[in-house]
Every structure is written in C-alpha cells, then in structure tokens.
Amino acid sequence: MSRILLVRHGQASFGADDYDNLSPTGHEQSRVLGAALAARGVAADVVVAGEMKRHAQTAADVLEGAGWGTGVDVDAGWNEFDHVQVLAVHDQPTTVEGESEKAAFQRWFTEATLRWTSGAHDDAYDESFSAFTSRVEAALDRLVAALPRSGTAVVLTSGGPVAWAAASLLADDDRARTDLWLRLNPVSVNTGVSTVVCGASGTTLVSFNAHDHLFADGSPDLLTYR
Question: Per residue in 22-38, pLDDT tens?
C-alpha cells in the first residue's frame, strides 16, 4: 500500500503586495511540519509541489525540517484556483453596519466562490470550476500511477486542491462533491496534512487536515488558516 500526504502550504502573505510568499510564520510552520514527519519515521520517496512560490517555499522548508534530500517535482495541476479573479468578477457586497473587515471579506469570498462553483457564469473566468476540479483529479491520478509500490509521496499545494481531492474521494456525484468542497476548503489549516492511501482496493482518503504538529511545543501560535 502506498500513501500520499497532501499538504496545504504555510501561511502566505495575506494583505501584502504579493500574497504568493510565505510569511515568517509560514516558514516556521513548514519547518515544524518537516521535523514532525521525520520524527514519525516518514521518508518521502516522491515530493511534488505546485508551481506557485508559496508551494516551492513550503517544500524547501519541509525538506529542511525533515532533513530529506529528495528532489522536488513541479506539477502545475496542484496550483490553487485564481481567488483574486474569482473575487474581482463578483462585486464586493455592501458592508453591513458593525461588521468587521474580516467578516466582510469572508462574506465576499463566500458569495464569489458560490458564483464560481455554480457553473452558470463560466465564460467570466479564465478557469471554470469544472476545469479546476478536472486538473486536480488529473494531477492526483498522475501521482497515483507514478508512485512506487509501498512508496510515500508528499505534495505541497493549496487548500483548494486538497479540499477537492478529499471531496472527490468521499462523495459520489458532482453536486455532493461541490457541496463538500465548499465546506472543506474554508477550514484548511496552513500545513494541514491529508492522507490518501492507494492499494488493491483503490484510492482512499483516510484523514483530512491533521495539524497536531503545530501544537508540538504547547503553543497555538502557529495555527493559521490564511
């Protein structure tokens, strides 16, 4: 039996001019995860990252923390969806009196994502939701096919692809998968680990969003969602 560890990247630079860089906290989360995996005896036969900077930076820090000498394969299939465009296409809703900036942003993001996932406005996006889900599934299929028997792969990606991989393995039809993705995506923790096993019975999700490594030193300061 082989296994795939799907890892959401460390905390990115939310609110900065370039979101696609890890924050100092994101770098630390990634190194802590690498050390925790090595301490548990995990040895990566294959390491794959999306092509975004935050994916490459997370990969480098995980490898440093784990002491692995594994090379990193880049697969754009693990890239995040373009949340900036998804937001830009959907007009920002009117601020509700007394609503915090964080709550207002989350409401905007939720409304914009629902519009994107509906499939009713695909022409407005460079990548439709169905195209996004198809490329994530294809990336997972490629990895499963290439993974050595009894091997371990570590994938450094984003919350959207991790949530879709999980939803696609848990639900039986597209509507149920989309509904599940909408629930899983917002709760993905930075450097959260989801485990997929591959064997004679197929490909199965056995855990989602594990992040106990962030509390290894007794401090919750490393727990972030952005």
Answer: 999 999 999 999 999 99
Provide the terminal-to-terminal Cα distance of the chain, rounded to the nearest Å: 33
The pTM of the full predicted model, rounded to 2 decimals, is 0.94
* Nearest-10 crossing angle of helices 174-184, 101-118: 170
Q: What confidence tens digit (pLDDT) does each residue in 189-225 have? A: 999 999 999 998 899 999 999 999 999 877 678 999 8
Query: Minimal CA–CA distance to 71: which of 51, 31, 50, 44?
Result: 44
Both structure tokens of 93: 């809703």
Which residues are 110's β-sheet partners? none
Ramachandran assignment for 110, one of left (phi > 0), alpha (psi -120 to 50 degrees), beta (any other): alpha
Residue 76, phi then psi, degrees to nearest 5: -65, -15
Residue with token string 């197929």? 202
